[in-house]
Each structure stands twice: as C-alpha cells, then as structure tokens.
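job 3f2a | input accepted
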Amino acid sequence: MMAWWPVTESSPIGVDVGSRAIKAVQLAPPSGGAAPAVAAAAVIPRRRFEGMIDDDEARRLRDVLDRRGFRCGDVVIAVPHEHLMSDLLELPPRESGAPIRQIAAMELARTNRCDPNSFELALWDVPGAGKSGTPSPAMAAACPHEQAEELLDRFASVGLRIRAIDVASCALARAAACMLDADGPTAMLDIGATGANFVLVLDGLVVYQRRLADVGLGRLHGALQEQFGLDDELIGHLLTGEDDGAPEDGATTGAGAAPADNAISAYIEGLCEEVRASLSYAEHL
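job 3f2a | predicted structure (285 res):
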C-alpha cells in the first residue's frame, strides 16, 4: 500500500488505467490545515477497450500530463482489476511465530492457481479482529510480476517513473478519509465501465472488497444505444443529469424518455441487489 506523501510537496501523479479511459490526478500540498486540494486532473478516453496500456497510450498520457500542468514525472498506478488478486485470509496469530507472509502467499497462489513466487504481495491485518491465540483475519492483495514489470517498462519508455503500484481500493479509502465513519465500517462503491468494486473500510483500512462484474456502466450504455438509438451525448445527459449535455430539441422529455428511464431504474435496482448481497456477506465475515 502506498504511504502518504510529504505535506510540503505535490503528491505523485495517481493513474488509473480503466477499460474505457485513463484517469490521472495530482494533489497540491495542504495549506492552513485544510485537506489537500486537486492540483491537476485529466481523463483520457482509450482508443481500444480494456487490455494493458500500450506505447501509444503511454505517450498520449505523458503529453496530456505535460499540457495540463502536472508536476514531476513520478507516478503511482493502480493495479488494473484484471491483474489484481485479493482475498480475506484466516492466518495464524502474529505471536505464533509462523511465517505469516509465506502462508498468505501460498493461500493466494492456491486460490488463483499460480506460483507463490510469481507475484508481489501486500498484507495487512483486519482491525479489531482475532484474539490472542486465535486465527487472525488479514487482507491480502497481489499483482503478478509479469504485469507489474510490463507497466514499469511501458511508463519508463516515455519518461514516467512509477514510484509505486497501489491497490485501487486502498487509494479510494485514503481519498475518502474525511468521510469515513469513525465508529464503524464504511461501504464504498466504485462504478466503472466493465464492472463495479464494492469496498468495505474500517479504521481507514480496507477489510473486504468484491468485484461486481455484471453491473458496469458499459452494459447500460450499450442497452440505451441498442434499444433506443441514443447517442453518447444524450446518454451522458441521462446518466449525469447535467444540462450541458441535454439536446435543445427536448428529446429527453416526454413519453420518449420513459423507456430509457425504466432501463436506468432497472440497472440501478440490479446494482442495489449486488450491493445488498455484498453487505450481507460482509456481515458474516
């Protein structure tokens, strides 16, 4: 997990390579006790959906960072969800003297059917769980060396240095630190084009995460295009409610809007069902 940066400097550039877009953000140093503010941000649509970032996309990212006022070339990149291995493990108590990291690596390798030496592992205890002498729940997250090295090489080839490879859910928990419940767990939902990530945070640490693969916005976007012949601009208006994207002919009002609204409502209900299932499972952890 990525540590916080020195408060006298701009943060490293956080980069998330999504299936439809590459997002980048950098925070300015906090001033006067206030929370850090966004210094620069960019969203770069991908010319091909999903997959590892290629040389052309890396060059486009570098050029956008230069034009948008990002400072320095140090990058912290989130592990793409398709390469992230994570699980909540029951491990021997810390005081047992057992090789905790080796046991965690073996268990993660077993469930993902890979070599335990083929990935980089992050491991942290679940706050408040486990008593002395009993199994200790811990979160494990890993990225295969092959994909990590490919990311390092791809960014280095365009002059961008990856300072760290982070877990997206941990970055999300840090970004939302001021909104977390101090007295209990906080559930968060990160919705992308090909799926959503359900994250449960306790005492600032991720204690559970689940990939919801069937509720990505891309599925809803495709349904609205196929069933109702809506273009990207109109779909954007329907999903965000922003007036800037609304067509001037009033196409989003009246009877024609009702079927699209029904499709959006059905999508939201399906998303809520997945969230309820995740919350129910998390209650029994």
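job 3f2a | Residues 217-280 form one domain.
job 3f2a | closed
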